[in-house]
Amino acid sequence: MLSDREKKGCYDLLNALPNIELLSLCDTVTSRMIKVDGRKEALKAIVTYTECPHQLLKRQKIRKDHLFQYLARSNIIVSPKTEKFVLIQTVLKSWGSAQQNVQQDDVEDELADDLDLTDNDDEAASQKPTHTQTHKETAQHLAESFVPWFYRMLNACNTHYVGETAGECFGAVHFFRDSKLELQLCSDGHVTEKENHSGSDVISTRLATLISQQNLCLNANITAEGIRGISDPHGLVVVMACGTVHRHQECLGVYKQQFGLARDPHSDNNWKIKFTKLVLQSGAHSQQPSLENSDFPQLEY
After folding, report:
1. Phi/psi of residue 193, each to 5°?
2. Measured distance CA(87)–CA(89) in Å, rounded
3. 73 by DSSP, 3-state: which?
4. Pick from 99, 110, 171, 255: CA 20 to 30 A from residue 247's CA?
5. Closest CA relative to residue 67, chosen from 106, 108, 59
6. What are the Cα distances from residue 145, in Å, to 4, 18, 32, 98, 241?
7. Cα distance between residue 28 and residue 14, in whole Å
8. Beta bridge partner(s), residue 37
């Protein structure tokens, strides 16, 4: 159990994490056994299910810059070149934690954190996936966190939207400055309109306008058939999503969307959208949209 001082410290530190990374960390800490709605519940779940503070701080999603900035806000000055394990020791000391001795080998790497591969159980260790499998599962994990967060934020551009919001505004900050958008409107499987845009400001405005002016809501299929994440060796993650398109009480059709995500080293290494392609298909559909539906235009990846 965390002390009150440790809980407060965890809340203060975690508040600096972007929503998508906070939700992903919540999945890791709770082994996806707890479903949360929004940032506030994610924070509570992480703190509640963290048994020891050093186990939380050593995770990859708690990066060096998070620890350094937290210490700076707490008026504790350390060198910017300080190793992560030393930063963890400093934070634990400021919280008065019982265990303050953290070694460099104790700090988890990125893949171990994302997949929670630190279980000491022999059987679990014997089933540890290969490097290729690990990257595949990590990309899928990111996709499953990104998709609900993105559409909660985008749908909030519709003033008539009554669903849950992401807790932050949709805008250019979520795209790289040179990002690209391809927008297709389809009917009966044929493209009727096609647009191409570039630039973070232009793209975010076009998507927000599409949702707000048409009073649309994109309801993603968040099952395994509706979300897919694929990574490449260079760090790019391609996310595929699909779902239904709604206006008020009417279902207008279905959609598919592809995203190319990459980390931005100039924005605390947060994930941003490098490119996206959105296909809207009008008309009635008799089955739940999935990425494998043959009657829907296919996206290449």
Report:
1. -145, 145
2. 5
3. helix
4. 171
5. 59
6. 29, 12, 11, 33, 12
7. 14
8. none
Residue 194 Ramachandran class (φ > 0 left, ψ -120 to 50 alpha, else beta): beta
* pLDDT tens by residue, 144-170: 889 988 998 999 999 887 666 555 689
- Crossing angle of the two packed helices 200-213 and 131-155, in degrees rounded to 10: 60
Nearest to 108 by CA among 100, 119, 123: 119
Instruction: Report the alpha-carbon distance of residue 5 to residue 175 in Å, rounded.
Output: 37
- C-alpha distances in Å from residue 199, one per residue of 13, 59, 180, 203, 271: 33, 34, 6, 6, 17
- Pull the structure tokens for residue 118: 């630190």
Q: What pLDDT does residue 129 have?
A: 38
3-state secondary structure of 200: helix
pLDDT in tens, 228-252: 999 887 788 999 999 999 998 889 9
What is the rounded distance in angstroms from the CA atom of residue 249 to the CA atom of residue 286? 17
> Which pair of tokens denotes residue 78?
């350390």
Task: Say how far residue 249 (Cα) sits from the centre of its chain.
Answer: 29
Q: Is 86 exposed, middle or buried (0-12, 13-18, 19+ CB in 10 A)?
A: middle
User: Which amino acid belongs to residue 171?
Assistant: G
Strands of the chain, DSSP E: 175-187, 190-198, 217-220, 227-231, 237-247, 250-264, 270-282
